[in-house]
Amino acid sequence: MGSEGYPHRLEYRREVAPGAWVHEYTELVDDMGFVMEHRRDRYRDWTVRYGTECACDFLFRRRARPGTFVVDIYRLFPGRCEHVVTVRVDWPPEKTGSSPVGEPGCQATMKV
Prior knowledge:
Helix content is 21%, strand content 44%. By secondary structure, the protein is of the alpha+beta class. The chain has a 5-stranded antiparallel β-sheet with strand order 2-1-3-4-5, covered by helices on one side. The protein starts with 6 loop residues before the first strand and ends with a strand.
């Protein structure tokens, strides 16, 4: 992935026992969605909401095994990376019928 654009790395860890996590996936994306909110007072809530939607979309496409996932999201820069947010997602989510593309709606169960 080049240094131009908005490269991000999402690391997915699934809970296998209380307090024990296993790394299942890493997703590299060029996505400016994480930087769309510029107001400091809204940035954290935005990144949690957007990160959760991105994670649920990825888990849906991968047909991931059920479980609780902790997803760490990093913005990549040449020679360094910055932590953006960590979200905890129960997968699969309860079906709500609210998604425009047919998959179930997804919500973060916890901000970390």
